[in-house]
Design a protein that fits this description.
The chain is an alpha/beta fold and 328 residues long. It has 9 helices and 15 strands. It folds into 2 domains: 176 residues, Quinone Oxidoreductase, Chain A, domain 1 (Alpha-Beta Complex); 124 residues, NAD(P)-binding Rossmann-like Domain (Rossmann fold, 3-Layer(aba) Sandwich), CATH 3.40.50. α2 packs across α3 and α2 crosses α8. Pfam families: ADH_N (PF08240), ADH_zinc_N (PF00107).
Length: 328
């Protein structure tokens, strides 16, 4: 393979992990306002699965992946934000991060501080900026709040629970097994509920002396909707931000009224980092909390790029903990 070529995952249709194919493709030059990044590590996220299986539509043929960290290899005309050799990460596209290199708009990448390694940046940026959005802007978690986080041992979950704890909240997490329960308890959770064995809402009421929680962070979707709503205190907020078990079905507004004048929101990170200023502020908050030691990023498993299908199967089958990385 020459320097003018690189490896990239491509797909021609929606489907299961088997539609992900490794190809050797021409390495593009960055256009005006763009940079080319040589990847050190690539982040794997549930949004990749939603795009692969068609829940979030893509135009085919296409690459996949929104998040990676590495070193700037080349810059296009007009780029002053970065120079070749800079350490950068990006987490909101365009799709195509599952590759040795990728061309992205300069204003969608952020500088990685020297004391944060590139694998940590790739493992943390999308999940960590999601956690920052959820905790600091979608719902402003404060000292004394009680929060419920589903999938507490997952990539977003482990960052979110540690950060929520650092903000002074009491944190309840749901997990699927004992090993994940131990992990969650070691990463910010004050209480853990095994969702397959316990009535989540009943346990939440027990833990909170019948009050419920101020906010539920729910990335699971259809399977947890009712438990999430039933866990909220009066005027509480359900933040639905994922569909791991399938999309949430339509909800009648009266369901929110009858549950105690509840709030429901379905945020996406891209609307919270829409400007360069918002992107830089979110990334800075994340890197600062990592550097402080209040949030430790757990890389639960890594896969070589050519085993991306196995990585997808593991993530989709809830067989992962923490962040999952592809290594070029």
């Amino acid at each position: 393979m020459s320097q003018a070529e690189h490896r990239a995952i491509r797909l021609n249709q929606t489907g299961g992990p088997e539609v992900l194919e490794l190809h050797t493709v021409a390495t593009p030059e960055p256009g005006a306002g763009e940079i080319r990044v040589r990847h050190a590590a690539i982040g794997l996220n549930f949004i990749d699965i939603y795009q692969r299986d068609g829940l979030y539509p893509l135009t085919f043929p296409t690459g996949l992946g929104l998040e990676a960290a590495g070193v700037v290899e080349a810059v296009g005309d007009g780029v002053t934000r970065f120079a070749p050799g800079d350490r950068v990460a990006y987490a909101n596209g365009p799709v195509g991060a599952y590759a040795d290199t990728h061309v992205v708009p300069a204003d969608r990448a952020v500088t990685v501080p020297q004391d944060v390694d590139l694998t940590t940046a790739a493992a943390a940026l999308l999940k960590g900026m999601t956690a920052e959005m959820l905790l600091r802007r979608v719902f402003h978690v404060q000292q004394g709040h009680v929060v419920l986080a589903h999938a507490a041992a997952g990539g977003v979950g482990l960052i979110l629970t540690q950060w929520a704890k650092a903000l002074g909240a009491t944190v309840i997490g749901t997990v699927g097994d004992e090993a994940k329960a131990e992990l969650a308890l070691a990463n910010g959770c004050d209480h853990v509920i095994l969702y397959d064995r316990e009535d989540v809402a009943a346990r939440v009421r027990e833990i909170t002396d019948g009050q419920g929680v101020e906010v539920v962070y729910d990335s699971v979707g259809a399977a947890t909707l009712e438990a999430s709503l039933a866990s909220l205190k009066r005027r509480g907020m359900l933040v639905s931000f994922g569909n791991a078990s399938g999309p949430v079905p339509p909800i009648a507004p009266l369901r929110l009224s009858r549950g105690g004048s509840l709030y429901l929101t379905r945020p996406t990170l891209f609307d919270y980092v829409a400007t360069v200023e918002e992107l830089d502020a979110s990334a800075k908050a994340l890197f600062d909390v990592i550097r402080s030691g209040e949030v430790k990023v757990r890389i639960g498993q890594t896969f070589p790029l050519e085993r991306v299908a196995d990585a997808h199967r593991a993530l989709q089958g809830r067989a992962t903990t923490g962040s999952t990385l592809l290594i070029p």
